[in-house]
Design brief:
The protein is α/β, with parallel strands linked by helices. It is built from 11 helices and 27 strands. Bound molecules: flavin-adenine dinucleotide.
Length: about 400
């Protein structure tokens, strides 16, 4: 049997490794738009900050050789011919398959495609993006940058650039940052902390009208209110588009079942896959590394002939790179809110029928593992959760791990 992957990213690398570890002896061909060994996009902000991040090639630089893979790199797949069970690449290569693992991830969404024609404007999604940004900073001696978009990825980029010593402005269309990862109060708290402590200049409730350029080179952005921000580097992080077009002709992702099958012979996983939520959330694109890896494992088990079913995705997020007050959240912000907050901490859980439905923790991660576990297991917590949140020493977690009664009980 011949297995072909579209993409060499986190999902595809995990899938191929699991196949080989599970004894698969057939041919494996991996196709990628990029030229690298499999890498982790999660580590890119560390590279951008100028830090050594050897683990970017998270499964080893020799991945293709070690797992006996034929790698077709630097040539994106543009079409899947289901009738003929083969794919076609931009350079015209045709690759037949018996099983196709479709995992091309997603790409940065540009509100205006023209911006990309200006030198110094980049998305922030791939290692190739990061290398281009890094090269631009070095060759142009960039001192000032603008990041457009105050979600998870925009902040990851802005914090990394600030850590590198650049002066960074961040433009966001909402009145608070991270509005998808937090509720109103949590988002406001996070925004205040970032405004006071990150060193990034925030432009909230603001929209970029245009990228300004001199001789084809970006020199800043102009906001809709007419204000100009100078910068020789502009990073656009205003969301993602799933790369589903080669398979579906559309860019809305690909619905998969509990076996990760999109259709006969074709499995899909990672940022491109529309999966069900593990608890009670809606089906959707749950674009995180743990989800991609879990999906890849189930897909590999399917190809190996196993019975594993995908348990569903979680919308858990942790923002903590280059930040001394991590921001953690998961679940739905609906139900009865129980909150503990002081100047440095914001901790809130949402309860439904006495069980955690969603949570936001800002300021430290001492309780994160404990709350995450309570959320997953849906244990009744209504009576005790207030004192757990107020536990500034984070003892609750350790007491529960040791099977000890809550402090003061
Ligand atoms: C800056 C950044 C920071 C992140 N931080 C975190 C984090 O802290 N925690 C977390 O859980 N998640 C994080 N993520 C998200 C995580 O990296 C993704 O959810 C995960 O990589 C998804 O895996 P994937 O295999 O679907 O896609 P990817 O790992 O993105 O791989 C997709 C691959 O497919 C290739 N490709 C694209 N189109 C084609 C085509 N037409 N033909 C062939 N190949 C193609 C791409 O070049 C790419 O190499 C971060 C993402 C970014 C961008």
């Amino acid at each position: 049997m011949k297995v072909v992957t579209v993409g060499t990213g986190m999902a595809a690398a995990e899938f191929v490794q699991q196949l080989r570890l599970g004894g698969f002896d057939g041919d494996i061909v991996m196709c990628s738009a990029e030229t690298h060994a499999p890498y982790s996009p999660c580590v890119i902000p560390y590279l951008l900050a100028g830090e050594p991040a050897d683990n970017v090639f998270w499964k080893g630089r020799d991945f293709y050789r070690r797992y006996r893979v034929t790698a077709r790199l630097g040539d994106p797949v543009v079409e899947i011919d289901r009738q003929q069970t083969r794919l076609r690449t931009a350079q015209g290569r045709v690759e037949p398959y018996d099983r196709l693992f479709f995992a091309p991830g997603s790409r940065s969404r540009f509100p205006c495609r023209d911006w990309l024609d200006t030198a110094g404007v980049f998305g922030f999604k791939t290692l190739s993006d990061m290398q281009a940004i890094d090269g631009h900073i070095r060759t142009q001696g960039v001192q000032r940058a603008v990041v457009i978009g105050g979600g998870f990825i925009g902040l990851d980029a802005a914090l990394a650039l600030r850590h590198r010593g650049l002066q960074v402005s961040l433009v966001h269309c909402h009145e608070r940052l991270l509005e998808r990862m937090t509720d109103v109060d949590g988002g406001r708290f996070a925004t205040e902390q970032l405004a006071q402590r990150s060193g990034i200049d925030l432009y909230l409730s603001s929209e970029v009208a245009t990228v300004t350029a001199r001789n084809g080179q970006a020199c800043g952005v102009r906001l809709r209110n007419g204000r100009d921000i100078d910068a020789a580097l502009v990073i656009v992080a205003t969301g993602f588009v799933p790369n589903s077009a080669p398979l579906t002709g559309a860019e809305q992702g690909i619905a998969v079942g509990n076996d990760l099958l999109a259709e006969a012979r074709i499995l899909a996983a990672g940022d491109v896959a529309v999966t069900r939520h593990a608890l009670d959330g809606p089906a959707g694109l749950y674009a995180t590394a743990p989800n991609a890896i879990a999906q890849a494992r189930v897909a590999a088990a399917y190809v190996l002939g196993g019975q594993t079913r995908y348990a569903g995705s979680l919308n858990a997020n942790v923002l903590r790179k280059h930040l001394d007050f991590p921001i953690v959240s998961a679940g739905r912000f609906e139900g009865e809110a129980v909150t503990f907050r002081n100047q440095r901490l914001f901790r809130r859980v949402y309860l439904q029928e006495g069980r955690i439905n969603g949570y936001i923790l800002i300021g430290d991660t001492r309780l994160a593992g404990y709350i995450y576990n309570l959320y997953l297991t849906r244990e009744p917590v209504a009576g005790a959760i207030g004192s757990v949140l107020a536990d500034s020493r984070g003892e609750s977690y350790y007491r529960s791990m040791m099977n000890l009664a809550p402090a003061g009980a």
